[in-house]
Amino acid sequence: MSTGIDVSSHQGNPDWGTVRGAGIEFAYIKASEGVGWTSPTLDSQFQGARGAGLAPGLYHFARPDTGNAPTAEADSFARHLHRLGAHGPGFLPPCLDIELTGGDLRAWCAAFVARLRDRLGRHRVMVYASTNFLLGHLGEPWADANNIWWWVAHYGRAPGQPGHVTPRVVMHQYTSSGRVNGIAGSVDMNRAMRPLSELTEGEDDMFTEDDRRRLVEIYEWWQHGIEGVRHAGAQALALYRVEQRLIEVHRLVEELKPTVATVVREALGDADPERVEQLVNRLTEKLDETAQRARPDTAGNGEASREQAAS
């Protein structure tokens, strides 16, 4: 897996060409802290890393200890992401660096993540924390509820083997005293735990428990013959939170078919596989037809959301 670094003003302005030549493939760059503070090296570090061919990403150092509103901090961070065009495909997910406590931390971080998605659209979000902080203050149920990825700091362990490993842990910061040609002094070192191409996809398409419940509801409406298949189609579109762009509806329904099949099998069992296949095909056909009819309204809503997010 790929090796990367994270930098702040402490690293000044690295020789990014030399850094890339040393085998470093990605870099997280500190953008902001609290409300209104911007790293003085943000622009030069971001442009330098990007120009040298590294996959860049920005992180925000949270200050819940000051009493700042999480929405205000998220807005401050989002302005830099928009200004630099530093989010979406080709970039590491925007990251919340949480190391300090204050008030109801789970609620604070959840509000930050939600606000950031409001500003950026359908988007993956990374949360950085040490193993002890993660387990002591946030936890996996919180991560599941907010659909985030973890970047875990855990020193003294082999790269890519942090003390806390779940499917949501996608990056490991394994030392703060790394040495890399092109950087004066020490630097934080990180190992990606998924392919870099996957980490830089941009869109948030992770399948959640809420998505699963929606599929079950859709199936139940159809199975019992309740009038309102159009409503089921609207739910299917909401399932993937189509707020920021038009989508190819038929492709989406085709991608849903394996999950629909799983739900149907769980409902009916495997005793009659032919019946299961028939139900899956009929259900996805209905969803496709209904979604096609609903598409114009969805497109309008998506455009409005896009304009609001950019304001």
UniProtKB/TrEMBL annotation:
Ranges of compositional bias, category Basic and acidic residues: 286-296
Region (Disordered): 286-311
A Pfam entry, by short name: Glyco_hydro_25
Listed GO MF terms: lysozyme activity
InterPro entries listed in its UniProt record: GH (IPR017853), Glyco_hydro_25 (IPR002053), Glyco_hydro_fam25_subgr (IPR018077)
CDD domains named among the record's database cross-references: GH25_muramidase
Keywords: Glycosidase, Hydrolase
Signal peptide: none
Biological processes, Gene Ontology terms: carbohydrate catabolic process; cell wall macromolecule catabolic process; peptidoglycan catabolic process
Family the UniProt entry places it in: Belongs to the glycosyl hydrolase 25 family.
Annotated protein name in UniProt: Lysozyme
Originating species: Longimycelium tulufanense
Classification of source organism: Bacteria, Bacillati, Actinomycetota, Actinomycetes, Pseudonocardiales
